[in-house]
Every structure is written in C-alpha cells, then in structure tokens.
Write a structure and sequence with these properties.
With 478 residues, the chain is α/β, with parallel strands linked by helices. The chain folds into 2 domains: 268 residues, Aldehyde Dehydrogenase, Chain A, domain 1 (3-Layer(aba) Sandwich), CATH 3.40.605; 183 residues, Aldehyde Dehydrogenase, Chain A, domain 2 (3-Layer(aba) Sandwich), CATH 3.40.309.10. It contains 14 helices and 20 strands. The strands form 5 sheets. The chain has a 7-stranded mixed sheet with strand order 14-15-16-13-12-17-18, sandwiched between helices. α6 links the parallel β8 and β9. The radius of gyration is 23 Å and the shape is globular.
C-alpha cells in the first residue's frame, strides 16, 4: 500500500518533518484534514541552493543524450505510479478520480518530449566574413525556481521540471500548499528515474516563508511561475532586482465566439463539457460566451441541458462528473461573483447555488447566465469556477472587439462552419492560443502561453527549452 506522506526533498534526502509547524491540507470534498505538510523557510532555501550550485556544475556537463535518458526514466517512473498520482491529485483538489489520470498522461508526455529536445540542442557554425568560424552554442541558464498552482499540479510541475532538466539546469520547486502529496510523488519519480541529488529539489510550505529568499538569491537565474497576474507582477518586480529571466503563465479570461453557421448543438455541448471541467478551475477554460443573436436560444437550451446532466459529487465517487471548488476562499469569491451577476440584470438559466444534497465540501452547481451585460463584473474578472456568462452579438467585427476587451490574452475559441471565417477569427482574436471548433490547445509538442497580462514565455514545443538556455557565440580564428 502506498504511503501518502508529504515530504520535502533537499540534496537527494527526503524528509517528512521540519522544525516548523506543519500545514494542514483540507479535503475540499468533505472539509476534513487529508494530511500534514512539512513546512520550509529561508534556512531550507539556503540549504537547497548550496546543493543546486554543486549540481549545476555536474548536471550542466552531462551530454544531452544522457539527460534525455534520465527524462525518459522519469516518464517511466510516473507511468508506474500513475494510479498514485491520480489519487493524490483527486483527493487534494477535488477533481473526480475518473478524470485525473488524463493529467498524469499529459505530464508524462512533457518528459518524453523534452527528452528528445535534450538530444537536439545543436548550435550553429557560420563562416566568418573576417576569417575563421562563428560558432553558437547553448548553455544552461543556471539554477531555476519553479512556482506552481494547485489546479493542475502534475502537469504544471512537469512543464517546468522537464525543460529545465533537458537544458542542464537544476530546479527548485515550490508548489501550492494545497498539493504537497501530488508534488511529493512527482519528485519521487524524478529520483527513481535517475535525477542526481540536487538536480530536482522540493520545498513545501507557505510562499511568504520560501519565495523571498529564492527571489533574492543571485544564484537563481530563472523563475518560472504558473499563477495569477497579481502574483506574476510581484515576482517580476523582485526578479528584476537580480536580473533573473522569467517565464509567466498567468491569468486568463478566454472568450468563445459561436458563429451563426456553427453546429450549434455540438458547440453548446462541447462548451459545457469544457467550461465545467475541473469545476471551471482551468486557466484556459472558456469563460465568456458570445453567441450570434439568431442562434442564442438554441445554444442556451443545449448548454443548460448538458450542464444539468452533470453529476456533482465527491471526487472518489465513480459517477461524479464535477467535484468541488478546491479552496473555501475561492468558493466564497465565486458566490460573490454570482450575486453580482444577478444584480447586473443577467438571467440565471441554471445553477447559482450550493447543491442541496451536499452539506459538506466546497461545492457550487454548474451555473449559466444569459443576457449578461458587457459591464458586468464577470465579463472582466476571471471566475475560475463553474460559472458561464452568455451574451449575444450581431456582426463578427463586434464579436471580435468584445472578445478582445480584457487585458488578458491566454486562450480564445471560436466555432464556425466556414474556413474563411475561421481564418479571420484566428487572426483577429488576441491570444497566445486559439482553438477553432475545439478546446484542445495544450499539447507537449506545441508552445503553450499567453500575451499581455496573461504572461510571457512558452511551455511546450520547440520554443520552451530556449527559455532555459543562454546562447554563447565564439569567433574562432587561427
């Protein structure tokens, strides 16, 4: 039987306790304590940095082919522990167990993809006009600090650990306090897969006790964050003091444009499925729905039908389609947003309350509003929950302008039966990623990331590893 005990990892040594008071992790399905997490502070940061400095000297010298073998070893270890990872994830964030293994599979693909990227870190040789050769080579940027959110705790860590290791960088991970067990299993897989001591380290605990010391260290040369725009702005400000490189995957407020020529029933069904996936706690979730005025009634009817058919319940129940909100504070914020949307004059089509049959846990019904005015708070503030506001449009230009009306630019979506309209929407929607007739924009082999207040840098694809590399040029003459 698997021992579900959260740990920290420093210099190749796992520890289950520290001198600090441990942190309780609450099961969002029943509000009971799941387990306690050992907490770290600046003394543990200093210790981890010392190990990372030593690891950088050795790991950066390992050939890319050998680094690729370690990454594939980590992928194999995660495959063996897929059930453990899925269970820890499901318990900690409340996602139905039946849906949790999919994230494990996506994370495994990150390690497999970047194993290949480690093997393909080629430079260039250019004949010099002044004689000799101009040679460019890639070198690891240095020690990396990875900060991850709780909503996709396996894939988010994989997206940071895998390219860092592929590039030859040691990485120090500081995950959300809500997901310590999921994070523990991931780094156990890293060790099992062959990552040397100090190459991957895990510091559990509160951000305020750990992050300042990491940000102040000149040895840390890159920060990778998945989190809110507010936190990203804070980290960028601090990172600037030591000129750290940053990759930021921040907030979003994805718009969906449903054109008159779309397959309306199929679009509405798909919109409901993806809107309420992970209880809406997805950075690329469809959040604002702009439906052509001639098709709005049909779209609303079908989306409501699909939403009402979802079974809301405990994450461990086999028939659950949607679990709770992960944090009590987030549930309270969503309820405030629902109340404001009602005050704005929007029509509540379904949901809007806590499920009557569940008196424990942070549950909210799948909720849909229609006739939502553009100045409603929910049209400008990311709900990060199971709330879908619907508005109508008349012209495509109007729809695009309103879809682009927020400072965010992570993802956007459109449904149309016309190739020409699809091209217009792809170019017109201001976002780092666009899905046309689908919501599948996250793949290991393509870049993932946003623009403007949704962040900078990319995770995945050929582009991501270069955020972890410096490029050196040498002019050889003799």
């Amino acid at each position: 039987m698997t021992d579900f005990t959260p740990k920290i990892l420093i210099g190749g040594e796992f520890r289950t306790t520290t001198d600090l008071t441990p942190i309780n992790v609450i099961n969002p399905c029943n509000e009971q304590v799941l387990w306690q997490t050992p907490a770290c502070d600046e003394t543990h940061v200093a210790e981890a940095l010392e190990h990372a400095r030593r690891a950088l000297k050795t790991w950066s010298a390992v050939h890319g082919w050998q680094r690729g073998q370690v990454l594939r070893g980590i992928a194999a270890a995660m495959t063996r522990r897929k059930a453990d990872l899925a269970k820890a994830l499901s318990l900690e964030i409340g996602r139905p167990l039946s849906q949790s293994e999919g994230e494990v599979g996506a994370a495994i693909e990150q390690f497999e993809w970047f194993a290949g990227e480690a093997e393909r870190l080629f430079g260039e040789t250019i004949p010099s006009r002044q004689g000799g050769r101009l040679v460019t080579e890639h070198e690891p940027v240095g020690i990396v600090a990875a900060f991850t959110a709780w909503n996709f705790p396996i894939n988010l860590m994989a997206r940071k650990i895998a390219p860092a290791l592929a590039a030859g960088c040691p990485v120090i991970c500081r995950p959300s306090e809500q997901t310590p067990m999921t994070s523990t299993i991931i780094v156990e897989c890293c060790v099992e897969g062959g990552a040397p001591a100090g190459v991957v380290q895990l510091l559990q605990g509160r951000a305020g006790d750990i992050s300042p010391a990491i940000l102040a260290s000149n040895d840390v040369r890159k920060i990778s964050l998945t989190g809110s725009t507010r936190v990203g702005q804070m980290l960028m400000t601090e990172a600037a003091k030591t000129v750290k490189r940053t990759s930021m995957e921040l907030g979003g407020h994805s718009a969906v444009v449903i054109c008159e020529d779309a397959d309306i029933d199929a679009a509405a069904d798909l919109c409901a499925q993806f809107k309420f996936r992970n209880a809406g706690q997805v950075c690329i979730a469809p959040n604002r729905f702009y439906v052509h005025e001639n098709k709005s009634e049909q779209f609303i009817e079908k989306m409501v039908e699909t939403a009402r058919a979802l079974v809301v319940g405990d994450s461990q129940a086999a028939d659950s389609d949607m679990g709770p909100i992960t944090l009590a504070s987030q549930r309270d914020r969503i309820e405030s947003l629902i109340a404001d949307t009602i005050k704005s004059g929007a029509k509540l089509e379904t949901g809007g309350s806590r499920p009557a049959h569940l008196n424990k846990g942070y549950y909210i019904e799948p909720t849909i509003f229609s006739n939502v005015p553009d100045d409603a708070r929910i049209m400008h503030e990311e709900p990060f929950g199971p709330v879908a506001p619907i508005a109508t449009f008349r012209t495509l230009d109007d729809a695009i302008e309103r879809a682009n009306s927020t400072p965010y630019g992570l993802a956007a979506y459109a449904f149309t039966g016309s190739h020409a309209t699809a091209e217009i929407l792809s170019k017109g929607l201001h976002a780092g990623m666009v899905g046309v007739n689908n919501f599948l924009v996250a793949h290991a082999e393509v870049p993932f990331g946003g623009v403007d207040h949704s962040g900078m840098g990319r995770e995945g694809g050929r582009q991501a590893i270069h955020d972890y590399l410096n490029t050196k040029m040498t002019h050889f003459t003799w």
